[in-house]
Structure to design on (372 residues):
């Protein structure tokens, strides 16, 4: 039996995946419910100010809030890309290093773009 | 007395010296509701075709010999009642992901080789007495008792799609036994098991499909054992990164 026990470098990716999964399970449904259903419906019922631009900006007025928002976006991206990477493997697609770079590269790119956009929002 | 009902059992057969690929053979036989599938297979062997080959021993779901695929799902044939399988037909195949020796008999050597790699045995510590018993509290036993119920039936290996894709994967039962010994207060082998645990073919080839836990006849829950160790492995990875020289 020849079996090399190579140490896996999966742990950091798995931790990001796990953190993103927690947020996706706990917070994302509330965000979808709020932005996709409650806010538009409340607009129809007369209160159109719930998702107003100025209100949203004031929500993100402190650096901490902005960092949290950028972190939320980043972790969801790492979660999704890690899932897609393993899904490809499960479907029998042997992408090798190229697939790994494509998946985790996308997650890194989304994280950076999210950070730049959120931090660069105008202050109210 | 009324006639006993009959059922059709289709068995996937293969003989090494038959010069043909595996074939399906259907047998129609009388059955009783409270008869096990193993007994039905024995009826086939005794009455219909003596060349049908399969393993069994205890007939009570404890030796782990009689595993096979039943309608696509890994099962112990002695643990299934014909009443639950009726009206059939029932399809019986050798356990998935293993080389077939003959008919329903598979070659388990790969898993037997992996048990020592996973450190699936108790490693005595320096303070373990050779003459005195090592006593444990009920709480210490509860730490590992569930993982110690494994009967090496290998149903979980047939259930695991990752083992099918990556034959190097140590697999559910070996990793559950790793966790079982790591959690034993009498054991001092955690450090020895780390290399296998942290390897790609250790806990990290698992993607938490969880089918191993569903098919296990002993309630071992290998998926939980593996994911507990993923947390420990990730912790050690970060600590090794932050504290150079911590390992090796
Ligand atoms: S963990 Fe369960 S399914 Fe796997 S070999 Fe042990 S008893 Fe069988
Ligand atoms: S014959 Fe022993 S487990 Fe089925």
């Amino acid at each position: 039996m020849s079996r090399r026990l190579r140490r896996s470098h999966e742990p950091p990716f798995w931790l990001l995946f796990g953190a993103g999964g927690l947020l996706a399970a706990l917070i994302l449904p509330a965000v979808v419910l709020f932005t996709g259903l409650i806010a538009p419906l409340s607009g129809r019922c007369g209160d159109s100010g719930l998702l107003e631009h100025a209100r949203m900006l004031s929500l993100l007025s402190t650096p901490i809030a902005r960092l949290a928002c950028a972190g939320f976006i980043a972790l969801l991206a790492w979660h999704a890309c890690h899932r897609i990477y393993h899904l490809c493997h499960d479907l029998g697609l042997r992408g090798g290093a190229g697939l790994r770079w494509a998946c985790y590269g996308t997650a890194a790119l989304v994280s950076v773009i999210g950070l730049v956009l959120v931090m660069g929002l105008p202050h109210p | 007395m009324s006639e006993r009902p009959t059922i059709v059992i289709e068995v996937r057969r293969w003989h090494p010296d038959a010069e043909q690929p595996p074939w399906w053979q259907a047998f129609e036989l009388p059955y009783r509701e409270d008869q096990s599938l193993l007994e039905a297979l024995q009826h086939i062997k005794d009455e219909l075709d003596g060349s049908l080959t399969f393993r069994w021993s205890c007939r009570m779901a404890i030796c782990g010999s009689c595993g096979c695929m039943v309608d696509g799902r890994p099962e112990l044939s002695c643990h299934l009642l014909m009443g639950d399988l009726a009206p059939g037909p029932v399809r019986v195949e050798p356990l998935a992901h293993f080389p077939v020796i003959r008919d329903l008999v598979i070659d388990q050597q790969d898993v037997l080789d992996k048990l020592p790699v996973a450190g699936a045995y108790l490693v005595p510590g320096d303070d373990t007495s050779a003459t005195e018993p090592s006593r444990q509290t009920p709480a210490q036993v509860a730490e590992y008792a569930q993982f110690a119920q494994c009967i090496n039936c290998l149903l979980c290996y047939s259930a695991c799609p990752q083992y099918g894709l990556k034959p190097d994967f140590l697999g559910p039962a070996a990793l559950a036994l790793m966790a079982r010994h790591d959690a034993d207060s009498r054991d001092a082998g955690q450090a020895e098991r780390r290399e296998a645990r942290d390897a790609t073919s250790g806990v990290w080839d698992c993607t938490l499909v969880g089918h191993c836990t569903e098919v296990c006849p002993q309630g071992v829950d290998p998926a939980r054992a593996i994911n507990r160790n993923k947390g420990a492995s990730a912790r050690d990875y970060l600590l090794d990164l932050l504290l150079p020289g911590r390992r090796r």
The mean pLDDT of chain B is 92. Chain B touches chain A at residues 113, 117, 161, 165, 168, 195-196, 198-202, 204, 207, 230, 233-234, 237-238 (CB under 8 Å).
